[in-house]
Structure formats: structure tokens, C-alpha cells
Amino acid sequence: IQKEELLRCKTYKQLQSTPMLTKGFASASRNLCRSASLAPKPTIPGPLRVGSPVAGLSHLPVVPSAATCSASPVSRKTSSPSSRRTVTMASASSALEWDKDDSRRMLHVVYRVGDLDKTIEYYKKHFGMQLLRMRDVPEGKFTNAFLGYGSELEHCVLELTYNYGVDSYPLGDGFGHFGLAVNDVYKTAESIQSSGGQVPRPAGPVKGGSTIIAFAKDPTGYSFELIQREGKIPEPFAQVMLRVFDLEKSIQYYTQALGMTLLRKRENPEGRYTLAFLGYGPEEENTVFELTYNWDRKEPYDKGGGYAQMAISTNDVYKTAEQIRAAGGTLTKEPGPASPNIPTKICATTDPDGWKIVFVDNEDFKKEF
Fold first, then answer.
1. Lowest mean pLDDT segment, chosen from 27-41, 258-272, 311-325, 345-359
2. Which residues of 178-189 are buried (b: 16+ CB within 10 A; e: fewer)?
3. What is the distance between the alpha carbons of residues 346 and 335, in angstroms, rounded to a whole number?
4. pTM to 2 decimal places
5. Using CA atoms, how far apart are residues 79 and 241, in angstroms rounded to an integer?
């Protein structure tokens, strides 16, 4: 970098014409300029100012510029490009570490349903959920219903959205399923079937393992994986499964931009797919993302029109936005109030496959209750 700076500001030519230059310094400069052509050429944020010292060359005499050759000495403080780069890199590194001081958890997953009343009753009866609250927005022509297994201040919940007059949605092939942890998968699956519900995958051990699972479908067509867990279940809403086109790129985004932890990966050579589980705590106690990568997939997935987004809490949406930027992510909503009529501060982003994530200010979120 130092050699490149000498070349960029044509230091060698300037030094040749400087009377103060010693013969030894001229020789050293020529050697630097010749060897610089063999070195990589990094991008330099602006030219080096002649008359200011170059980091690493402080043992060499400083070449004065015309502006500094005055009768009275002038005190100047300059910052070299290398020092500015160091500050920028330090700031980016600090932004990427913000999640370690933050308090994050998944708040609610948002998706659209065709028959709100029927879906609410289905979830209450078959999944043991509670209707926590409802919100009707006539001017927006939609209604929200929040269902889950406890207070929204402690659990991740499902936010159902019913748009007036829309009774069905194309679900695409990108969204996979929601996962629910239950004590008895066989009993839950039997209850759904006996009531006329769909259980396309009967209860039984997972292929190649011992965990008991089943798959059910709700009235809109969303798949729910029932996962058997013993004893007390701290967070019954276990997971959200999404399919991704580039697993390693997605893992990097979720860990660096969203600050999640890669909890585990599991490859299935026979089925030709890989699973990655990411979240803000152990999956036995928290809602997590299950990302699925199908080895033979040749094109991106269709996200459909049903699944909308995941909302995640944060202590500072502005710092969280900086972390997303520092990790190379993009913001679809700059940090600030959700809207002119909703003061809750949020920021939003999308992952490499276009799945939307919204960060919500912790204190503002608590004011909603």
C-alpha cells in the first residue's frame, strides 16, 4: 500500500526535482517504485498529501510541499489514507459485533390465510394454541389474529393476516413448514384426522432416525411438522422451515447480518439435501429457522404469496441496521418509525433468497400491550 501511494502521487518524480533530496533517499525511492509494479494494487481512498509522513516510512525525511515551505512554521495535523482505512475497518468490525450486546428473539411470524375464523378454531382445537389478541384495520382492509402458547413478551407467536375478500393464496415451493413441538405426535395426528383434517405424513419415526414426527395441513394449505419432545416444552413453536438456493451464502447472512448462531447442520446424502438450524438460543427452548438446501435444485424458489416475514426484537434498530450493512446486506426499510401513524421503530431486510426479516425496537414493542 505504501509503495502504491508513492506511485499514485508520482512521488518519485517529485523527489527527483527536490533539492533537499539526498542521494541515498533517491536510490531507495527508485527501488520502491520498481518493486511496486510487482505488488497487488489495492484501492486507495484518495491521494497521499505530499508533505505528510507515510506510515512505516517515518525513518525517511519528509519531503516538504510549497505550502509548508514558508518563513514561519505552520502546525498541521493530517490523517493518512491508511489511518482512515483502519478507522473504517474498526467501525465495520464494531458494527458486526453489535448483536453480542443486543437482546434478540423471534417475536412473530407473519403469513396470510384465506379463512381467518376457521384457521383460528383449527389452531386452538388441534394445536392447543390460544387466541392472544385480534386487530382489525378497516382502512387497510385487513385483520390480524395473534395465536401462540403464551404471552407475546415471552414467546414467538403466529400472526395471521386476513385480507378482506381474499380466500386463498399461492404458497409457492420455497416455504416449507412451521414446526410444533408436542408431547404425543400420535395423539395429535389422530385428533386432526378424526376431525376431518389432513395428515399427509402419518405419525412415525423420521427416516433414518428415532424422532417421532408427522405432517399436517391447515385450512389454507400450510404444512405443520409435529415434532415429539418429552417433558416440559419451553417453546412449543419450534421452527420455521424455508428453502434456500445457496446454503453457505444464507448461513453467512443469518450469522453475520442477523447475528444468529448456527446451531447444527445435517446432511442427508440419500435424500440429497442439507439442513441448517439457526437461531438465538438452543432449539429445544427457542423458535429457530430451519434452512433446507436441495442439492439438485437448479433455479431459485417461488416464494408464493402466503408467507410474509419474521419479526425479531432488538434494543436498537439503528445499530442493527448498521450491522446488516457492515455484513453486506441491504435494507428494504431504513430504521425509524414503521409509518407516520405507527411510532414503533423498525428496520427491514431480505435474505439472499428474498425472505423478509423485520427488526422491531424492544421498548416500542412492549408499549403495544
1. 27-41
2. bbbbbeebeebb
3. 5
4. 0.75
5. 49
225 in catalytic set: yes
Vertex 350: Cα angle to 165 and 303 (nearest 5)? 45
Q: Which one of the listed residues 159, 225, 235, 283 is annotated catalytic?
A: 225
Q: What pLDDT digit, counting tens, does each position of 290-326 carry?
A: 999 999 999 999 999 999 999 999 999 999 999 999 9
What is the Cα–Cα distance from 197 to 191, expressed in whole angstroms? 8
**Whole-angstrom Cα distance, residue 52 to residue 20?**
16
